[in-house]
Write a structure and sequence with these properties.
With about 110 residues, this protein is of the alpha/beta class. The chain has a three-stranded parallel sheet with strand order 1-2-5, with helices on one face. Strands 6-7-8 form a three-stranded antiparallel sheet, with no helix packed on it. Strands 3-4 form a two-stranded antiparallel ribbon. It has a single domain (about 5-110), classed as FAD/NAD(P)-binding domain. The radius of gyration is 15 Å and the shape is globular. The chain has four helices and eight strands, in the order βαββαβαββββα. Helix content is about 25%, strand content about 30%. β7 and β8 (about 95-100) form a beta hairpin. Bound molecules: flavin-adenine dinucleotide.
């Protein structure tokens, strides 16, 4: 495991992807968690509903998106609980992931 502070991002939606990208040059180890292994580009969902696009046209593999960003690891699974007191995130498979205090990362993002 990396010696860098562990940052966990729950959700590979627009918000989660944006934060992970912003942390590309920050000395942290990012774990990006989503219950799906793909990101859905929601603004184009209506085109799938109206058969103008295939479902795979509005989905992108999260692992592929971050294959060149070494400080991001993608974890497939559903988060079932966050214990702030002990800085742990619980997953539906019983696994637990540590995370660092968010303040340092938020300070960095506030500067960018
Ligand atoms: C049909 C449609 C059209 C839209 N069009 C536009 C538009 O034109 N312009 C615009 O600005 N906005 C549009 N939006 C809104 C925009 O898509 C959302 O505001 C945006 O996707 C929200 O991003 P988010 O990261 O907060 O959440 P989401 O994109 O919803 O991402 C949340 C992610 O978290 C994951 N997740 C949730 N719970 C858990 C859990 N417990 N464990 C693990 N993973 C979890 C989900 O799988 C998901 O990938 C549209 C939305 C829809 C539905």
């Amino acid at each position: 495991m990396s010696n860098y502070p562990q940052v966990v991002i729950v959700g590979a939606g627009f918000g989660g992807l944006g934060v992970a990208e912003q942390l590309a040059h920050v000395p942290v180890a990012v774990t990006l968690i989503d219950r799906h292994n793909y990101h859905t580009f929601q603004p184009l969902l209506y085109q799938v509903a109206t058969s103008l696009l295939n479902a795979e046209d509005v989905g992108a593999s999260v692992r592929s998106m971050f294959r060149h960003q070494e400080n991001v690891n993608f974890r497939l699974g559903t988060v079932t609980g966050i214990d702030v007191a002990v800085k742990k995130i619980r997953m539906d498979d019983g696994d637990e992931t540590n995370f660092a205090p968010a303040l340092r990362c938020l300070r960095h993002l506030a500067k960018t």
